[in-house]
Amino acid sequence: MIERVKSAMVGLGASWVLILMLVLSVVSLAIMLERLWLYMSLRDDVPNLMRELGRLLRAGDLDGARRRLEASPSAEAAVVMAGIVEAPQGADAAEEAMAGASALQRVKLERRLAFLGTLGNNAPFLGLLGTVIGIVGAFDELGKQKNATMQAASSAIAPEAVMSNIAEALVATAVGLLVAIPAVAAFNAFQRVVRTTLANTDALSHVLLAHLKATGEPSAEADEAVEAAASRPSPSKRSKGASKDADDN
């Protein structure tokens, strides 16, 4: 069985590994460019957006806040926009709507990043596989030449086929690293963009929730006043009691 596996490996060689890694590198580059274009298209001045949103909400201009968010291309604005839509239903409804919108934006931002992470982790192993195949081929070729050169001098130069297989093995390792390093770098950079976007989204969401909770929930003094009013008898009851006392007299 070992001979069959060795024959298959030597017969195929490491060329197919190099072709596979070349295809994967092209796909990886396409994903990097597509993700970069997406993140650039979603860029906005989030600190300025937060200041303007807070100013509009403090002024009670909910329509102005909606227009400002609609004018922003950012994912942060899209999430808070979902909360603005549900704002008339209360702070809890707005918070749930923003949580759902944030989950959708996260899926959008992280799409295809798993491919980059997987490729970055496994491309060196693919290169190592090509290296192993090349070394196996080199030793197999060296074994074939051994019998033919038994009578030759021991210092004879290694056959050209052996050197070619060794070179192919080393090239496979180098290509694996060249494919993995950009993929890992891009994956880490894009993950940082996603984390930053989600953090900005959380900050903007709290600006809206703070406004809704401040305007939609009664204060403690108002609660005490309502309870005191409820505990006092109504004017009609007091008048009926007064008339009853007069009749008794």
TrEMBL record:
The chain crosses the membrane at residues 12-33, 113-139, 169-190. Residues 219-249 are annotated as: Disordered. Belongs to the exbB/tolQ family. This is MotA/TolQ/ExbB proton channel family protein. Keywords: Cell membrane, Membrane, Protein transport, Transmembrane, Transmembrane helix, Transport. GO terms for cellular component: plasma membrane. It comes from Labilithrix luteola. It is a multi-pass membrane protein. It comes from the Bacteria. GO terms for biological process: protein import. It is found in: Cell membrane; Membrane. PANTHER family: BIOPOLYMER TRANSPORT PROTEIN EXBB, PROTEIN TOLQ. The keyword Iron does not apply. Its main location: membrane. Residues 76-199 form the MotA/TolQ/ExbB proton channel domain. The keyword Transport applies. Pfam families: MotA_ExbB. The lineage of its organism: Bacteria, Pseudomonadati, Myxococcota, Polyangia, Polyangiales. Coiled coil: none annotated.
